[in-house]
Amino acid sequence: MIPATFEYHPASSVDEAIALLSQYGDDAKLLAGGHSLIPTMKLRLAQPAHLIDIGRIPGLSYIREEGNVVAVGALTTYATIERSEVLRRYFAVLPECASVIGDPQVRNRGTIGGSISHADPSADMPGAVRALKAEIRVRGPNGERTVAADDFFLGTFTTALEPGEMVTEIRFPLPPARTGSAYTKLANKASHYAVAGCAAVVTLGADGACTAASVVITGAGTMPTRASAVEAALMGKQLDEATVAEAASHAAEGLELMEDIHGSKQYRAQMAAVMARRAILKAAERARG
Amino acid sequence: MGIAALVGTPIKRREDPRLITGQATYVDDLKLPGMLYMAVLRSPYGHARIRSINTEAAKQAPGVVAVYTAQDLKGVVGNIPVAAPLPPHITNGMGRRGPLAEGKVRFYGDPVAVVIAESRYGARDALDLIEVDYEPLPAVVDPEKAAQPDAPLLYEEFGTNVAASVRPPTDEIDRVFAETQANGGIVVRQRMVNQRLAPSPMETRGVVAEFRKADRTLTIWSSSQIPHLLRNYLAEQLGLPQHQVRVIVPEVGGGFGCKLNIYPEEALAAFAAMKTGHPVKWIEDRSENLAVTIHGRDQINYVEVAATRDGKITGLKVHVVSDLGAYLQFFTDVIAIAFTLPMICGCYDIPVAYGSCDIVFTNKAPTDAYRGAGRPEAAYIAERAVDLVAHALGKDPAEVRMINFVKPEQFPHKMATGTVYDSGNYQLALEKAMQLIGYQQLRAEQAQKRAQGKLMGIGISSYVEICGIGPKGLTPFGLYESARVRVDQSGDVLIYTGASPHGQGEETTFAQIAADEFGIPIERVLVLHGDTDSTPEGRGTYGSRTTAVGGTAVYNAVQKLKEKMKQIAAHMLEASPADVTLEDGKFSVAGAPQKAVTFAEVAAAANFSNTLPPGIEPGLETTVFFEPEACTFPFGTHICVVEIDKDTGEVHLRRYVAVDDCGRQLNPLLVAGQIHGGIVQGVGQALFEGVVYDENGQLLTSTFMDYAMPLASELPPFELDHTVTPTPYNPLGVKGVGEAGTIAATPAVAGAVADALGLPHVDIPFTPERIWRIIQQQQAQPQA
Ligand SMILES: Cc1cc2nc3c(=O)[nH]c(=O)nc-3n(C[C@H](O)[C@H](O)[C@H](O)COP(=O)(O)OP(=O)(O)OC[C@H]3O[C@@H](n4cnc5c(N)ncnc54)[C@H](O)[C@@H]3O)c2cc1C
């Protein structure tokens, strides 16, 4: 479990990191918490010749309220997210999601920016980021741009990041009143990544009927996938058990299902529905306050 | 009042401070001047012919000192040692191998070449430069398919993959089955899979080899359970006299049987050290460990059990298919035959038992002894068989156990398998466990939950195992243990044991034995092990034998020294040795307690020697070998409760009670530790673990991302109790406890899950999808 030879470049600023990325191109990789990249390198599945360490760049780890947005720096660790009062107040799904990732060591090192950039289909955080309809702030050689989470994830380990770009911030719009969110996952018993997981965000009207629903499935498919059919089935309805179960049964629609020794396609499809039902019920309960 | 006895008290392990403060030395901590590093190139195929190997580019790589293939070892390094080669084929070479593959690779990870380089990194990088031209061959990974006539052959020249078959005549068992049925009884049949497991010790394997050319002495540091056997066999493999090989076993971070082996890498590192004149280190990485260190279990069992309507078992017929993997390691071929078949009756007085076995080569890693080594499979067979009978008759599984137990007054008892059990009280352990867990209340709760459509199950495992090997003749070489005990001139006691503790805590328990017998504080006793130069002979630690055999050797050695010290004390006290007693570290004359000399004074006299009486040799030192006359049979009952999530198929272990009887307990804290760890591994087999290969022999569980180890967060607190039934076969009365938890736990959880689902049997491991599918089926076709 020894990685191939690489050159290590500690970057002291985002600009420097981007300059290094431009310089080394395809031979380079950014290193954040290292908890996806290093294992991959040790198995020699990735052999970057240059490693640009962004983990020491100051000022990229924060959770800030900025008007009607909460901004989270790309280097913010799961542990920080898990303990954030601000996040807990507005987006229960984020600390909840962070708390079921790996073990304390992983949560102390792994970053939200690293997780979404890596775009592992079995990872948890991409689901929460997408369900909350976050905006992802990206910096590259041509300056800064913002990508909607729905447009960010393109496939297995594939994102909208262009060569030379890095994620600097994830911006979460504050939710309307009576919004609740939750994350549930069925963990793979070996890796504890998601065999199937669901991040759900629901908003209820004064009468208790669902006025907005955002449901994203992790683990079961080849990428974190919006469960549009589930969302549609929730809209305008009272979120009782039967309604939610019926809606959740559409969770696998539109998923490009994965399959491995921890779960067949059929099982993953069913588990997506189970996780969706549980996450939506929990989110609705939180929305009711 | 005298010093409180130490034996029987829960004192903390003396080895722990150095282990938990990072001050212990493991193989990988060793750095020798001029040391080189070895990396091993391994087969990416399950089965392939090697057309050619080109090592030129690797040899040119920076820092590379040498690259070796099987060609280089020819005539220099012998085959990997096998303890007990079985006829007809293994005795003729089937399944034997040199340290590097020749002509063919037969499993994923099969070693093909090694690189010796100045750094570990350089060695690893150079592996990528070796070109091997493989011709992939059809592989066979299922032992039953491998036994078919048209299967791809691992060893073409033998015309079969079946290395040996044991098939006694079936007349008697057939008669019993027919009679039982004629009398209205039942015969239940079940195929069971006991899946392949990866032992996965926290410390992987590792070796450092150093060869001094001047005096041709080879020193091997190895993470091993068997320093002496390693020395003896490695010497033979390398053509060196035993005395020119010294094996040092430093701290070992777990073995579980997988380090009871002589592996290719030990000979390879030694060969490289001898060729290059430099010390050579090899440290196994985790993926190598999961791929090439022996696996355990991997049996398919066909179980047929006959019983009367009252639940009395009349006969048991078992056929075992044992998957050997691609090659033989130390005990690969005999695990099923020598350890499973003799124990299939469990604790039950079954009048007629029949066992047959096929041992079969497949394109997978070799199997061998993994914690329990054949006995977990036997306990699984016996416990599942009793549960099958209970299920078929609609009886409580506890009741069927009670009906069939060997009774306390029947010991020593010869089982239908021919195995003679030493002592036991199986009812007592079961009753105690039932009481502790509140069995009747749980059954009531279960009935309530069932009515609500919830799945809750209770599983019982009344296991018995065979320990304390071994008596003469049971194995190809005597499995005695040695102890050298020395009292130095300051009165400190040094114990050199031939056992090789690697986590079990004998540095503590052996010291307890000696401290009590001498009546001195434990601080004055030191237990040393793991160096064939300081303890010239020994057999090592495995099979839950170390306290029963090695502890007894210590005890006997101490008795001998005590006798000598009494003679010296008698001389000093001008009394007759017969009148001298040793108590609380003082030798005194019976009836005149003021006339006394201390333990230290006698030790000084013995070592200084000037004042010794004529006829008494100077010094206080003795070496004792203990070879038990018979095996010991620890037993107990474990009961657990599971709940199943109907939506996901996940099994939650809710409670776990263990009542174990390992004979006399020298240190209850250490016993509890062994039971805890054992249960975790047994539960791991039932719920999580499993080595998986695809049809081509590709390993799909090559990292912990895919091989599921049990986590503390998935386990309930264990509730432990015990009974004490000493063995008559050693003076300490101890039976062994190292494997008990592992042996007991798997069938307990298996019973609970089958019970929850209302089924006679479900194959382990209970992965969520497997259970979910069963629930789906049950919901699709509701039971009549
Ligand atoms: C034992 C273990 C268990 C785990 N369990 C889970 C789990 O249960 N659930 C789960 O979701 N994850 C799990 N993980 C993965 C963990 O969440 C990773 O930390 C995370 O996926 C990646 O974050 P990182 O900061 O470590 O990124 P790194 O590993 O440093 O980088 C990952 C990739 O993203 C790129 N990258 C990093 N930061 C940026 C950036 N700002 N902009 C652009 N590209 C960037 C890197 O170049 C690299 O390609 C586990 C990891 C381990 C080791």
Question: What tags apply to this protein structure?
Answer:
heterodimer; A: 289 residues; alpha+beta; Uridine Diphospho-n-acetylenolpyruvylglucosamine Reductase, domain 2; Uridine Diphospho-n-acetylenolpyruvylglucosamine Reductase, domain 3; Enolase-like, domain 1; 3 domains; 5-stranded antiparallel β-sheet; 4-stranded antiparallel β-sheet; 12 helices; 34% helix; 27% strand; globular; B: 784 residues; Aldehyde Oxidoreductase, domain 4; Aldehyde Oxidoreductase, domain 3; 7-stranded mixed β-sheet; 5-stranded mixed β-sheet; 20 helices; 24% strand; binds flavin-adenine dinucleotide; oxidoreductase (chain A); oxidoreductase activity (chain A)
Helix-strand blueprint:
The complex is a heterodimer of chains A (289) and B (784).
Chain A (H helix, E strand, L loop, with lengths): L6 E4 L3 H11 L3 E4 L5 H6 L7 E4 L9 E4 L2 E5 L4 H6 L1 H6 L2 H7 L4 H6 L2 H7 L6 H7 L3 E6 L2 E6 H4 E3 L2 E2 L6 E8 L5 E9 L6 E11 L5 E9 L6 E2 L1 H7 L6 H8 L16 H24 L1
Parallel strand pairs in A: 1-3, 2-3
Antiparallel strand pairs in A: 4-5, 5-10, 6-7, 6-10, 8-9, 11-12, 12-13, 13-14
Chain B lengths: L15 H5 L15 E7 L5 E7 L1 H5 L3 E6 H4 L30 E2 L5 E7 L2 H8 L3 E6 L6 H4 L15 E5 L4 H12 L3 E12 L8 E7 L4 E6 L4 H12 L6 E4 L15 H13 L3 E4 L2 H7 L3 E12 L5 E13 L9 H6 L11 E10 L13 H19 L3 H8 L8 E2 L5 E2 L4 H12 L1 H13 L3 E10 L16 E7 L5 E5 L8 H13 L6 E4 L17 H28 L6 E4 L2 E4 L2 E7 H10 L12 E6 L8 E10 L6 E11 L6 H20 L30 E5 L17 H18 L10 H13 L4
Parallel strand pairs in B: 1-12, 10-11, 14-15, 20-21, 27-28
Antiparallel strand pairs in B: 1-5, 2-4, 2-6, 3-5, 7-15, 8-13, 9-10, 9-12, 13-14, 16-17, 18-26, 19-20, 19-25, 22-23, 23-24, 26-27
Flavin-adenine dinucleotide (FAD) binds next to strand 2, helix 2, helix 6, helix 7 and strand 10 of chain A.
